[in-house]
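I would like you to sit down with the record closing this message with an eye to the fold:
=====
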Amino acid sequence: MAGDPDSVSISGTTKQEEMENHDQTNVLQKHVKFFDRNNDGIIYPSETFQGFRAIGCGLILSSFAAVFINVGLSRKTRPGKPFSFRFPIEVKNIHMGKHGSDSGVYDKEGRYVPLKFEEIFIKHARTHPNALTSDELNNFLKSNREPKDYGGWLAGFTEWKILYYLCKDQNGLLRKEMIRAAYDGSLFEKMEKEKASKKQNITCDV
């Protein structure tokens, strides 16, 4: 019905979702807040490491992520402040760390853009309308590349490949709901709970 706030728009999202998205000041902050383990607004490498371990990543990947992410984002999110060897990331300024050659799903203020999210699948999901294969993900990443933006290429490649590695299903598909949850940060909380639940079940079985 035309007057139904939950009716689906051309973008594939409901009108209610779009209204909520416009009201959200910074979804990108929600994306990274999971890694602010003590909720003080600052993410240190140790917290990034802890966050990746909490969602089931191994020691090597978690260590790499802590170095790669914090070294890459610390100075960008701390404008006017002196360099720190502790490499803190300020959550409130995370939008300043946006790299080039990205999908555009976050705008320059860190807000979620539904149309850009839907474009990922309209343009690149050929095998399944609501998922990406490994090859389709590679094509998507290539299509985002801006000329000579090597740092952006690397950042995008690393982020998406880690997401694919962690969240692909048994058929090698990275599903739409997983990607959406990664954008709003709810995926990480879900993964942490699932890992904790599995650990508890193993303990109970011993």
Remarks:
- The chain has one domain: 15-200.
